[in-house]
Design a protein that fits this description.
The structure is a single chain. The chain is α+β, with helices and mostly antiparallel strands and about 210 residues long. The chain folds into 2 domains: about 5-85, Orthogonal Bundle (Arc Repressor Mutant, subunit A), CATH 1.10.10.970; about 100-210, ADP-ribosylation fold (Alpha-Beta Barrel), CATH 3.20.170. About 25% of the residues lie in helices and about 25% in strands. It has helices at about 5-30, 45-50, 60-70, 120-125, 165-170; strands at about 45, 75-80, 80-85, 100, 110-115, 130, 135-140, 160-165, 175, 185, 190, 195-200, 205-210. The chain has an 8-stranded antiparallel β-sheet. It has a 3-stranded antiparallel β-sheet with strand order 1-3-2. It has a two-stranded antiparallel sheet with strand order 6-11. Helix 1 (about 5-30) crosses helix 3 (about 60-70). The protein starts with a helix and ends with a strand. About 25% of the residues are buried. Belongs to the KptA/TPT1 family. It catalyses: 2'-phospho-[ligated tRNA] + NAD(+) = mature tRNA + ADP-alpha-D-ribose 1'',2''-cyclic phosphate + nicotinamide.
Amino acid sequence: MSGKQRRKDRNDSSQVKLSKLLSNILRHSAEKRGLEIGDDGFVKLNDLLKLQQFKGKSVEDIQFVVENNDKQRFSLKTENSELYIRANQGHSIEVKDLELEKITDHEQIPTVIHGTYLNRWKFIEKEGLRKMNRNHIHCSIGHFGDPNVKSGLRANCDLFIYINAKKAMEDGIEFYRSSNGVILTSGINGCLKPEYFLKVVNKNDIILFPRDS
């Protein structure tokens, strides 16, 4: 491996670590760390950088992560000459105004996919999808409605759950689209039961659900 490639790998690793740190604090622990978080989820970037975890990091470092994050997890805004940052979705802390777009017609989201891991399938098959400590269950939408293109999912997912959004919405379950295109739902009492699964496939597109009768 060349010196240039090693430097690139180190830089990539550093950016991933910084992205994960931002996600953890902005989604889950901003208040515990003494950060003032607005109803829209934004915190002052300068306040964030004062935390010990960000020692040695600059505004430019944060901007680079925000601009180059493959899933556009974060947003920046300037208000009264002050720079603010937020996570676009994935919170466990309460955020009242995340600018979520409510889906009013299932045809707006013809293909809704939740990506997860095969070792969780036995529980999911019995209990359904749960939002766990987050405010929503996270899903992606097939690229231009193409069910064969699983865009916006974690690269290491090996289980794909296709959601029957039409049936779910008919039963009063609400869906939202975040500012970075993630489809969010709280299901019913934080759960989306297997009755709302269209199909479940593994990474090799082998169908696990519905089972052959």
